[in-house]
Amino acid sequence: MDIVIPSGQNLWLFIGAAMVLLLIPGPAVLYVVARSVTQGRTAGIVSVCGIHTATLIHIAAAALGLSVLVLSSALAFNIVKFAGAAYLIWLGFRKIFGPAEAAGPDGELPRYSYARLFRDGFFVNLLNPKTAVFFLAFLPQFVDVSKGHVAMQITILGLILAVLGFCTDSAYSLLAGSVADWLKRSRGYVQFERYGSGLLFIGLGVAAAFSGTRHK
Protein backbone atom coordinates (compact mmCIF):
# COMPACT_ATOMS: atom_id res chain seq x y z
CA MET A 1 0.00 0.00 0.00
CA ASP A 2 1.32 3.43 -0.95
CA ILE A 3 2.12 5.90 1.80
CA VAL A 4 -0.31 8.81 1.74
CA ILE A 5 0.74 12.13 3.28
CA PRO A 6 -1.22 15.38 3.55
CA SER A 7 -0.81 17.97 0.82
CA GLY A 8 2.28 20.19 0.93
CA GLN A 9 0.44 23.32 2.03
CA ASN A 10 -1.38 21.50 4.82
CA LEU A 11 1.87 19.87 5.92
CA TRP A 12 3.76 23.15 6.28
CA LEU A 13 0.82 24.78 8.05
CA PHE A 14 0.77 21.84 10.42
CA ILE A 15 4.50 22.09 11.16
CA GLY A 16 4.24 25.83 11.83
CA ALA A 17 1.21 25.48 14.11
CA ALA A 18 2.78 22.52 15.92
CA MET A 19 5.99 24.45 16.65
CA VAL A 20 4.02 27.33 18.13
CA LEU A 21 2.08 24.99 20.41
CA LEU A 22 5.11 22.93 21.42
CA LEU A 23 7.15 25.98 22.41
CA ILE A 24 4.48 26.97 24.95
CA PRO A 25 5.40 25.22 28.23
CA GLY A 26 2.80 22.67 29.32
CA PRO A 27 2.69 19.87 31.93
CA ALA A 28 5.17 17.70 30.00
CA VAL A 29 7.68 20.56 29.70
CA LEU A 30 7.34 21.41 33.40
CA TYR A 31 7.93 17.76 34.26
CA VAL A 32 11.06 17.61 32.08
CA VAL A 33 12.39 20.85 33.54
CA ALA A 34 11.86 19.58 37.11
CA ARG A 35 13.72 16.35 36.35
CA SER A 36 16.55 18.16 34.54
CA VAL A 37 17.07 20.63 37.37
CA THR A 38 17.06 17.80 39.91
CA GLN A 39 19.34 15.35 38.12
CA GLY A 40 20.84 16.97 35.07
CA ARG A 41 20.51 16.90 31.30
CA THR A 42 20.68 13.12 30.82
CA ALA A 43 17.84 12.55 33.28
CA GLY A 44 15.80 15.13 31.43
CA ILE A 45 16.42 13.45 28.07
CA VAL A 46 15.42 10.05 29.53
CA SER A 47 12.20 11.65 30.81
CA VAL A 48 11.59 13.10 27.34
CA CYS A 49 11.98 9.61 25.86
CA GLY A 50 9.36 8.27 28.27
CA ILE A 51 6.98 11.12 27.48
CA HIS A 52 7.17 10.61 23.73
CA THR A 53 6.95 6.84 23.94
CA ALA A 54 3.52 7.51 25.45
CA THR A 55 2.91 9.97 22.61
CA LEU A 56 3.23 7.06 20.16
CA ILE A 57 0.38 5.30 21.97
CA HIS A 58 -1.77 8.42 21.70
CA ILE A 59 -0.98 8.57 17.97
CA ALA A 60 -2.08 4.96 17.50
CA ALA A 61 -5.23 5.62 19.53
CA ALA A 62 -6.09 8.67 17.44
CA ALA A 63 -5.49 6.80 14.20
CA LEU A 64 -7.68 3.89 15.29
CA GLY A 65 -10.43 6.09 16.61
CA LEU A 66 -9.94 5.20 20.27
CA SER A 67 -9.73 8.85 21.25
CA VAL A 68 -13.27 9.29 19.90
CA LEU A 69 -14.41 6.46 22.17
CA VAL A 70 -12.82 8.11 25.20
CA LEU A 71 -14.40 11.47 24.44
CA SER A 72 -17.82 9.97 23.75
CA SER A 73 -17.96 8.21 27.12
CA ALA A 74 -18.17 10.33 30.27
CA LEU A 75 -17.04 7.38 32.40
CA ALA A 76 -14.01 6.57 30.24
CA PHE A 77 -13.02 10.23 30.02
CA ASN A 78 -13.25 10.74 33.77
CA ILE A 79 -11.34 7.54 34.55
CA VAL A 80 -8.41 8.65 32.38
CA LYS A 81 -8.62 12.25 33.56
CA PHE A 82 -8.63 11.51 37.29
CA ALA A 83 -6.11 8.66 37.02
CA GLY A 84 -3.63 11.09 35.46
CA ALA A 85 -4.40 13.77 38.06
CA ALA A 86 -4.04 11.29 40.93
CA TYR A 87 -0.67 10.12 39.62
CA LEU A 88 0.70 13.68 39.51
CA ILE A 89 -0.61 14.42 43.00
CA TRP A 90 0.92 11.16 44.29
CA LEU A 91 4.30 12.16 42.85
CA GLY A 92 4.03 15.51 44.65
CA PHE A 93 3.11 14.07 48.07
CA ARG A 94 5.81 11.42 47.74
CA LYS A 95 8.33 14.15 47.04
CA ILE A 96 7.29 16.27 50.05
CA PHE A 97 6.49 13.63 52.67
CA GLY A 98 8.76 10.81 51.55
CA PRO A 99 12.14 10.10 53.18
CA ALA A 100 14.46 13.07 53.04
CA GLU A 101 17.06 12.83 50.32
CA ALA A 102 20.45 13.26 51.91
CA ALA A 103 23.16 14.83 49.86
CA GLY A 104 26.06 12.67 48.84
CA PRO A 105 29.73 13.34 49.62
CA ASP A 106 30.02 15.60 46.59
CA GLY A 107 26.92 17.56 47.51
CA GLU A 108 24.78 16.00 44.80
CA LEU A 109 21.30 14.61 45.43
CA PRO A 110 20.80 10.83 45.03
CA ARG A 111 19.97 9.93 41.45
CA TYR A 112 16.85 8.07 40.38
CA SER A 113 17.35 5.17 38.01
CA TYR A 114 16.85 5.89 34.33
CA ALA A 115 14.16 3.19 34.27
CA ARG A 116 12.18 5.08 36.90
CA LEU A 117 12.60 8.40 35.11
CA PHE A 118 11.45 6.81 31.86
CA ARG A 119 8.47 5.17 33.59
CA ASP A 120 7.34 8.37 35.32
CA GLY A 121 7.59 10.37 32.10
CA PHE A 122 5.67 7.68 30.24
CA PHE A 123 2.74 7.64 32.67
CA VAL A 124 2.62 11.42 33.08
CA ASN A 125 1.89 11.73 29.36
CA LEU A 126 -0.06 8.50 28.87
CA LEU A 127 -2.59 9.39 31.60
CA ASN A 128 -3.01 12.98 30.41
CA PRO A 129 -6.47 13.19 28.76
CA LYS A 130 -5.56 16.56 27.26
CA THR A 131 -3.12 14.77 24.98
CA ALA A 132 -5.92 12.60 23.58
CA VAL A 133 -8.12 15.67 23.19
CA PHE A 134 -5.28 17.48 21.44
CA PHE A 135 -4.75 14.73 18.89
CA LEU A 136 -8.48 14.45 18.19
CA ALA A 137 -8.97 18.21 17.78
CA PHE A 138 -5.70 19.24 16.15
CA LEU A 139 -4.51 16.55 13.73
CA PRO A 140 -7.71 16.13 11.66
CA GLN A 141 -7.61 19.79 10.66
CA PHE A 142 -4.60 19.07 8.45
CA VAL A 143 -5.81 15.84 6.88
CA ASP A 144 -6.61 15.90 3.15
CA VAL A 145 -9.76 13.79 3.06
CA SER A 146 -9.75 13.70 -0.74
CA LYS A 147 -6.58 11.60 -0.64
CA GLY A 148 -8.19 8.93 1.53
CA HIS A 149 -6.34 6.79 4.08
CA VAL A 150 -7.22 9.20 6.88
CA ALA A 151 -5.76 6.92 9.57
CA MET A 152 -2.41 6.85 7.75
CA GLN A 153 -2.36 10.64 7.38
CA ILE A 154 -3.12 11.08 11.09
CA THR A 155 -0.34 8.63 11.93
CA ILE A 156 2.19 10.51 9.79
CA LEU A 157 1.18 13.88 11.24
CA GLY A 158 1.36 12.42 14.72
CA LEU A 159 4.85 11.06 14.15
CA ILE A 160 5.99 14.45 12.84
CA LEU A 161 4.54 16.06 15.95
CA ALA A 162 6.30 13.51 18.16
CA VAL A 163 9.67 14.24 16.52
CA LEU A 164 9.17 18.00 16.85
CA GLY A 165 8.06 17.55 20.47
CA PHE A 166 11.10 15.43 21.25
CA CYS A 167 13.36 18.18 19.87
CA THR A 168 11.68 21.05 21.74
CA ASP A 169 11.39 19.14 25.02
CA SER A 170 15.04 18.09 24.74
CA ALA A 171 16.00 21.73 24.24
CA TYR A 172 14.13 22.63 27.43
CA SER A 173 15.93 19.78 29.19
CA LEU A 174 19.38 20.95 28.09
CA LEU A 175 18.61 24.53 29.12
CA ALA A 176 17.23 23.48 32.51
CA GLY A 177 20.24 21.22 33.08
CA SER A 178 22.57 24.16 32.45
CA VAL A 179 20.66 26.34 34.89
CA ALA A 180 20.73 23.51 37.45
CA ASP A 181 24.53 23.55 37.51
CA TRP A 182 24.32 27.13 38.73
CA LEU A 183 21.40 26.60 41.11
CA LYS A 184 22.98 23.68 42.93
CA ARG A 185 25.82 25.86 44.18
CA SER A 186 23.30 27.22 46.69
CA ARG A 187 22.76 25.14 49.84
CA GLY A 188 19.15 26.28 50.04
CA TYR A 189 18.37 24.75 46.66
CA VAL A 190 18.00 21.19 48.01
CA GLN A 191 15.20 22.26 50.37
CA PHE A 192 13.59 24.42 47.72
CA GLU A 193 13.77 21.61 45.16
CA ARG A 194 12.03 19.14 47.45
CA TYR A 195 9.05 21.31 48.38
CA GLY A 196 8.96 23.36 45.20
CA SER A 197 8.86 20.39 42.83
CA GLY A 198 6.44 18.55 45.14
CA LEU A 199 4.02 21.46 45.12
CA LEU A 200 4.48 21.74 41.35
CA PHE A 201 3.37 18.13 40.81
CA ILE A 202 0.43 18.56 43.18
CA GLY A 203 -0.60 21.77 41.42
CA LEU A 204 -0.43 20.09 38.03
CA GLY A 205 -2.56 17.22 39.32
CA VAL A 206 -5.21 19.53 40.77
CA ALA A 207 -5.26 21.60 37.58
CA ALA A 208 -5.66 18.46 35.47
CA ALA A 209 -8.54 17.28 37.65
CA PHE A 210 -10.56 20.48 37.59
CA SER A 211 -9.63 22.19 34.33
CA GLY A 212 -11.92 22.00 31.33
CA THR A 213 -15.39 20.57 30.95
CA ARG A 214 -16.53 17.65 28.89
CA HIS A 215 -18.65 18.63 25.89
CA LYS A 216 -22.11 17.12 25.66
What do these coordinates show?
There is one protein chain. The chain is mainly α. It has one domain. The chain contains 9 helices and no strands. Helix 1 runs parallel beside helix 8, helix 3 packs antiparallel against helix 8 and helix 4 packs across helix 7. The chain starts with 7 loop residues before the first helix and ends in a 6-residue tail after the last helix.
Short description:
Helix content is 76%, strand content 0%.
Describe the secondary-structure layout.
Blueprint: H1 8-23, H2 27-39, H3 41-64, H4 66-72, H5 74-97, H6 114-126, H7 129-138, H8 150-183, H9 188-210
Helix pairs in contact: 1-8, 2-3, 2-6, 2-8, 2-9, 3-6, 3-7, 3-8, 4-5, 4-7, 5-9
What count of domains describes the coordinates?
1
Strand content: under 5%
* Straight-line N-to-C gap: 38 Å
Q: Helix coverage percent of residues?
A: over 70%
| Helix count from the secondary structure assignment | 9
Find the count of extended strands (DSSP E, 2+ residues).
0
Mean pLDDT figure:
76
Radius of gyration: 19 Å
